[in-house]
């Protein structure tokens, strides 16, 4: 079984980030990590407001922001490896390791991804889950510990405005994991596996 897990950029300064990286690495061969943009994407927003470049350019810069955060995560844990294509993702998974998606190359070739701020790493994680034919998707978000199923109404303020549509197109289970509970990853993986069996 393959699962996609989005690790929010807001966890950059979280005390539990090393625990999350250990948990994600420990799920090697089962999980693809989608990094958020974090402060790197915030810098794009600030610079856009100052210079006034287009949303399409900001979108492309935000993809690179995700790549920067992803590269930092890979450097922090040897079990995480950067991957810019579905082929590289598959090769890393086959080695029992955990790929961290570098999204620019794949997203810039995808006509179904709007180049706008309505699409952030949340929606891109759902898009990637569909491309990879993953069994489930989880978003690690600030909020209560544990896991709950994504609710388009209750969780609409926790995701970007395009996410509900991308999640519906993915069509498989989407969970939200509390940011302060890395153990929830193991529980979510086990639950997803039990449902598949």
Structure characterization notes:
The protein is α/β, with parallel strands linked by helices. It has a single domain (3-196), classed as Acetylglutamate kinase-like (Carbamate kinase). The chain is 47% helix and 16% strand. The chain is built from 8 helices and 7 strands, in the order E-H-E-H-H-E-H-E-H-H-E-E-H-E-H. The protein has helices at 17-26, 38-51, 55-76, 86-94, 104-107, 121-131, 163-170, 183-196; strands at residues 3-7, 31-35, 80-83, 98-101, 136-141, 147-149, 174-178. The strands form 2 sheets. A 5-stranded mixed beta sheet has the order 2-1-5-7-6, sandwiched between helices. Strands 3-4 form a two-stranded parallel ribbon. Helix 2 packs antiparallel against helix 3 and helix 6 runs parallel beside helix 7 (163-170). The chain is globular, with a radius of gyration of 16 Å. 43% of the residues are buried. The model has no long low-confidence stretch (mean pLDDT 93).
């Amino acid at each position: 079984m393959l699962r996609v897990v989005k690790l929010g950029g807001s966890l950059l300064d979280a005390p539990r980030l090393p625990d999350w990286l250990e948990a994600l690495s420990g799920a090697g061969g089962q999980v693809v990590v989608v990094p958020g943009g974090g402060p790197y994407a915030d810098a794009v927003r600030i610079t856009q407001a100052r210079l006034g470049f287009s949303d399409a350019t900001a979108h492309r810069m935000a993809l690179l922001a995700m790549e920067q955060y992803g590269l930092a995560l890979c450097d922090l844990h040897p079990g995480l490896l950067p991957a810019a294509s579905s082929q590289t993702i598959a090769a890393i998974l086959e080695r029992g390791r955990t790929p961290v998606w570098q999204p620019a190359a794949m997203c810039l070739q995808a006509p179904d991804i709007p180049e706008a701020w309505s699409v952030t790493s949340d929606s891109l994680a759902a898009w990637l889950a569909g491309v990879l034919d993953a069994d489930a998707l989880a978003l690690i978000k600030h909020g209560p510990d544990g896991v709950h199923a994504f609710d388009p109404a209750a969780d609409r303020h926790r995701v970007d405005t395009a996410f509900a549509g991308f999640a519906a197109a993915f069509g498989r289970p989407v969970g939200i994991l509390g940011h302060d509970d890395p153990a929830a990853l193991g529980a979510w993986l086990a639950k997803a596996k039990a449902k598949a069996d």
